[in-house]
Design goal:
The protein is α/β, with parallel strands linked by helices and about 575 residues long. It has 3 domains: about 130 residues, no CATH class; about 150 residues, 2-Layer Sandwich (Alpha-Beta Plaits), CATH 3.30.70; about 250 residues, EAL domain (TIM Barrel, Alpha-Beta Barrel), CATH 3.20.20.450. The chain contains 18 helices and 16 strands. Helix 8 links the parallel strand 6 and strand 7. It starts with 20 loop residues before the first helix and ends in a 6-residue tail after the last helix. The structure holds ligand C2E and magnesium ion (2 copies). Ligand C2E binds next to strand 9, helix 11, strand 11 and strand 13.
Length: about 575
């Protein structure tokens, strides 16, 4: 299949590859002057018997380089004639050259000029092809990121030089939604027809609205609008996204791709740097994807916070190694007796530069990467250490930690927990693992198997944030859990909002029917606790009882609230 050509690949040749315009005329004049000068030099230094004759090769080769084989032939002939019939062998005697002599020399010049000209043309052609390949995407033939950055560089320079504040350059990052899944299902053979189809639709939009289209990589395209207005940019962004909403035909199969976009602009979002401008457009694109939007404009505050989150993620391993992470414990009490039953370990990061960082600011990122595995192991170690200390002091509480859905995808996870609990010498029943229903989404059977192994050893399991996930009753009755933790979003305002109260009541009833303990989290005052007692809830946890606290404070809190299981 022939690659589609695009008008935007028309870049200017590099200076050494060919000269244009005034430089071409100057080159022509230079060649003529040099040939004439060598003629004069040869004549005045004694004629064609001198070595100066060979200097004529310089303008002949120069003409071949500048004007190709035609130029080489023409100026080779001219050089042969200048040193030909009218140039004597010896100027002093005026002896003429034999015919064969100058005709042979002229023929050599013509052949040499023509051949070197042809060689230069070939080299030129190859160099152009190489450059073109380096600046275009091999699948679609659209200009690639190098070409885009080069264009941006020129445009930004131009805008700065013109000193016109109204000149605005927009960069629109465009990511296909369904590309990876499609290639996964249809195979790599679908790549070219699909991407070429996308390229052609985007080119059509680009031509209509004055935008240049670039293909950066696989499912990433970019539009650039120079000297454009916000309104024009918006129209182009919308149309670019919309033109990809109708299915593509790949070998008779209708394939839906869809796309989302992110916009950054110069000089609004970035002062001087093409790479950073492009980065910002792609940050906005990623945000649009995460938020499920069609497009987003770059926002400096959001951009900086995602950069910070990224930096933090990079520092997390070091934070574990250097002991910057520790657990705070939030007591859980028996709703009816008011006695301490246990505590939930909640992770805290004391960053040397940023101070305390809440778990919500780094755990979701760690969950998206493999870092959640070492993190959970670290938390388990901290919790078991503290639990051993408390038990050694006679404070025989339960301790729960939070386990992420992704942890269950680690095939060594269960073995590791069992080995660590065993090594700590703790009764497995003193440890509780809290997980959310999202853990079941990827591979419910495998996760249920893992939970079963944990439960068989006596480790307690509870479903966290109950009511916010997808609660499948089929799975709920098969899960070897011992408690449902009703999400705080229902508990906090259950006295004011009757819908929340109904959900809490129903959840308590469901837990009781399934033979599970009900735990209400987010209990912020005594009235809520009293209401939970009336509803028959078993366990409560919340700011109204105690906030998460360091281990030392938990000890004091436990002593002040007598009745911990001894
Ligand atoms: P979670 O497991 O549902 O933990 C309860 C969160 O609610 C805690 O926030 C706690 O401080 C807060 N909370 C407790 N009582 C109240 C209350 O009465 N009112 C209000 N407004 N909030 C209350 P925190 O410590 O910021 O933790 C947030 C989430 O971060 C946790 O939700 C859990 O999903 C996650 N997390 C915390 N530590 C870990 C950990 O070690 N590993 C994993 N995987 N996740 C953790
Ligand atoms: Mg929890
Ligand atoms: Mg929770």
């Amino acid at each position: 299949m022939e690659l589609p050509r695009t008008p935007w690949t028309s870049w200017r040749p590099e200076p050494w590859l060919g000269v244009t315009g005034a430089w071409r005329l100057a080159g022509l004049a230079l060649v003529v002057v040099l040939i004439a000068a060598v003629g004069v030099l040869v004549y005045y230094t004694g004629g064609t018997s001198t070595a100066y004759l060979n200097l004529i090769l310089i303008p002949v080769i120069l003409s071949a380089a500048l004007f190709g084989w035609r130029g080489g032939l023409l100026f080779g002939l001219l050089a042969g004639l200048v040193l030909g019939p009218f140039m004597p062998i010896d100027t002093a005697t005026g002896e003429p050259q034999p015919l064969l002599n100058w005709v042979t020399r002229a023929t050599i010049y013509v052949v040499l000029g023509g051949f070197t000209g042809w060689l230069f043309t070939r080299l030129n052609h190859h160099a152009r092809q190489l450059l073109e390949r380096a600046r275009s995407n091999p699948v679609t033939g659209l200009p690639n990121r190098q070409a885009l950055e080069g264009q941006l560089h020129q445009r930004i320079r131009g805008a700065e030089a013109s000193n016109a504040p109204a000149v605005r350059i927009f960069v629109v990052g465009l990511q296909l939604d369904n590309y990876q899944d499609t290639i996964g299902a249809l195979g790599l053979g679908a790549e070219q027809p699909l991407l070429c189809g996308v390229a052609r639709r985007l080119e059509a939009v680009g031509e209509r609205l004055g935008a240049q289209v670039y293909h950066l990589h696989d499912d990433q395209f970019t539009l650039m609008l120079a000297d454009s207005s916000q309104r024009e940019n918006l129209a182009a962004t919308r149309q670019a996204v919309e033109c990809l909403q109708t299915p593509f035909d790949v070998e008779g199969i209708p394939v839906y791709l869809g796309a989302h976009a992110g916009v950054a602009s110069f000089p609004f979002h970035e002062q001087d740097d093409p790479e950073r401008l492009l980065t910002k457009a792609w940050m906005a694109t990623r945000e649009a994807g995460q938020a499920g939007r069609r497009y987003r404009t770059y926002n400096r505050r959001r951009g900086e916070s995602s950069r910070l989150a990224m930096e933090r993620l990079g520092e997390l391993q070091q934070a574990m190694d250097q002991g910057q992470l520790h657990l705070h414990y939030q007591p859980k009490i028996d709703v009816h007796e008011g006695t301490l039953l246990g505590a939930e370990g909640l992770l805290r990061w004391q960053h040397p530069r940023y101070g305390a960082i809440a778990p919500g600011e780094f755990i979701p990122q760690a969950e998206r990467t493999g870092l959640i595995d070492p993190l959970t192991r670290h938390v388990l170690e901290l919790a078991l250490n503290d639990l051993s200390t408390l038990w050694a002091e006679g404070l025989r509480v339960h301790m729960s930690i939070n386990v992420s859905a992704r942890n269950f995808l680690d095939p060594t996870f269960v073995d590791h927990i069992l080995a660590t609990v065993d090594a700590a010498g703790i009764a497995p029943g003193a440890l509780e693992l809290e997980f959310t229903e999202t853990a079941l989404m990827d591979d419910p059977e495998e996760v249920i198997g893992a939970l079963q192994r944990l439960a068989n050893t006596g480790i307690e399991l509870s479903i966290d944030d109950f009511g916010t996930g997808y609660s499948s009753m089929t799975y709920l009755q098969r899960l070897p859990v011992s408690a449902l933790k009703i999400d705080q979003s229902f508990v906090r305002q259950m006295l004011e909002r009757s819908v929340d109260a109904q959900i809490v009541r129903a959840s308590i009833g469901l837990a009781a029917d399934l033979g599970l303990q009900s735990i209400a989290e987010g209990v912020e005052d005594a009235a809520t606790l009293a209401r939970l007692r009336e509803l028959g809830c078993d366990v409560a946890q919340g700011f109204g009882i105690a906030r998460p606290m360091p281990l030392d404070q938990l000890r004091h809190w436990a002593r002040d609230h007598q009745g911990a299981t001894a």
